[in-house]
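Encode chain A's predicted structure.
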Amino acid sequence: MITNEEKKLLEHIEKLGSLNKASRKLKIPLALIKSKILKIEYSEKCKVLIKMSGGLGGGGSRLSREARELIRCFNSTKKSDISKH
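Encoded structure for chain A:
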């Protein structure tokens, strides 16, 4: 299961389409973001990002289906926790 911090990171990457933009928005060094991505991939045993190579507008990243599922599971778990109280 991912943490709330990891969920927010993944959501920012998806929204902004770029690790660099997420790094700037969250004020987290790019190297730390890459490290967090690797940690998620290792612990969840799945690829998190789909990287797009450059071009006119440059490259970018988007979330894999598995990463979106991790976010969905996290949100479902939190809703379940809230309804128990």
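Strands lie at 49-52, 60-63.
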